[in-house]
C-alpha cells in the first residue's frame, strides 16, 4: 500500500508540476509583455511631447540670420560710403577776373577750371549740416569754404572753415535739393579738388566736414584725413 501510494504521489507530482511551471511561464510572459508595452507607451509619450521638425521653420531662421548679416554689412558700407549727389554749380569766376587778381597780387597764373569740369559731390548729411549752420547763423550766404594749401606730412592739406560771404574768385556749389547748403572753393584750389566728395562724418572723437574720394590724391593719404599727396 505504501508502495502504491508513493508511486501515485510521484505520478501526480509529475503531472501537476508541469502545470505549475506553465502557469509561472505564462505569468512571466504576461509580465514581460506588460513591461514592454509600458516602455513603448512612454517612448510614444516622450516623442509626442517634442515639437515636430518643421523644415520651413529652419529655413525661416536661416533666412533671418542671413538677412541680419547682410544688413550689418550694408550699414557698415553705407556709413563709409554714404550716397552723394552732384552739387549744383551756382556761380563761378570769369577767367579775366582771375588773371587780373593774379597780376595785382604778383602771383603765378592760376589754371582756370571751366564750369563743365568744376564738379563736386556732396552727401545728404553734409548738406543737412550746412543747412543747420545757415539757419543757426541766420545768414543764407553762410557756407563751408574749402581750400588746398601746401604743407602737412604728405605735401598738401585741406583747410575747411565756415565763411560768411562769397569772394569774387570763388566757385559756388550747392546741394540740388537741400538748401541752403553753400560750398565755396577758390580758383586756386578748384583744380586740386574737382571730382571730390564733401561729407560730414560723425565719429567717437567728434564730428566734422571732410573731403573724400579726391581723384587728384594718391592713395588714402594721412590717417588724419587732412594731409594728402598729389597724384602725378
Report on the structure:
The chain is of the alpha+beta class. The protein has helices at 2-49, 55-80, 95-105, 124-137, 187-193; strands at 84-86, 88-91, 121-123, 143-150, 156-163, 170-174, 182-186, 197-203, 206-212, 217-218, 227-230. The chain has a 7-stranded mixed sheet. A 4-stranded mixed sheet has the order 1-3-8-9.
Fold blueprint:
Blueprint: H1 2-49, H2 55-80, E1 84-86, E2 88-91, H3 95-105, E3 121-123, H4 124-137, E4 143-150, E5 156-163, E6 170-174, E7 182-186, H5 187-193, E8 197-203, E9 206-212, E10 217-218, E11 227-230
Parallel strand pairs: 3-8, 4-7
Antiparallel strand pairs: 1-3, 2-6, 4-5, 5-11, 6-7, 8-9, 10-11
Strand content: 15-25%
Structural Rg: 45 Å
Q: Provide a count of the helices.
A: 5
Proportion of helical residues? 40-55%
Silhouette? elongated
| Straight-line distance between termini | 138 Å
Task: Determine the mean pLDDT.
Answer: 76
Q: Reading side by side through the largest sheet, how are the strands ordered?
A: 2-6-7-4-5-11-10
Give the H and E element order.
HHEEHEHEEEEHEEEE
Total count of strands: 11
Structural class by SSE content = alpha+beta
The major pleated sheet works out as:
7 strands, mixed
Ranges where pLDDT stays below 50 over 5 or more residues in a row are: 10-23
Amino acid at each position: 500500500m505504501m508502495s502504491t501510494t508513493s508511486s501515485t504521489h510521484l505520478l501526480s507530482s509529475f503531472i501537476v508540476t508541469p502545470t505549475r511551471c506553465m502557469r509561472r511561464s505564462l505569468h512571466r510572459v504576461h509580465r514581460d509583455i506588460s513591461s514592454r508595452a509600458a516602455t513603448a507607451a512612454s517612448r510614444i509619450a516622450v516623442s509626442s511631447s517634442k515639437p515636430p521638425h518643421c523644415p520651413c521653420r529652419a529655413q525661416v531662421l536661416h533666412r533671418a540670420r542671413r538677412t541680419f548679416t547682410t544688413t550689418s554689412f550694408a550699414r557698415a558700407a553705407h556709413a563709409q560710403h554714404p550716397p552723394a549727389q552732384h552739387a549744383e554749380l551756382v556761380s563761378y569766376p570769369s577767367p579775366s577776373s582771375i588773371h587780373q587778381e593774379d597780376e595785382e597780387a604778383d602771383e603765378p597764373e592760376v589754371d582756370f577750371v571751366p564750369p563743365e569740369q568744376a564738379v563736386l559731390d556732396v552727401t545728404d548729411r553734409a548738406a543737412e549740416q550746412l543747412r543747420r549752420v545757415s539757419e543757426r547763423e541766420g545768414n543764407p550766404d553762410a557756407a563751408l569754404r574749402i581750400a588746398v594749401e601746401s604743407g602737412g606730412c604728405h605735401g598738401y592739406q585741406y583747410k575747411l572753415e565756415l565763411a560768411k560771404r562769397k569772394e569774387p574768385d570763388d566757385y559756388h556749389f550747392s546741394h540740388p535739393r537741400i538748401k541752403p547748403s553753400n560750398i565755396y572753393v577758390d580758383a586756386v584750389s578748384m583744380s586740386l579738388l574737382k571730382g571730390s566728395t564733401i561729407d560730414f562724418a560723425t565719429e567717437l572723437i567728434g564730428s566734422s566736414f571732410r573731403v573724400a574720394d579726391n581723384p587728384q590724391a594718391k592713395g588714402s593719404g594721412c590717417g588724419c584725413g587732412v594731409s594728402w599727396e598729389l597724384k602725378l
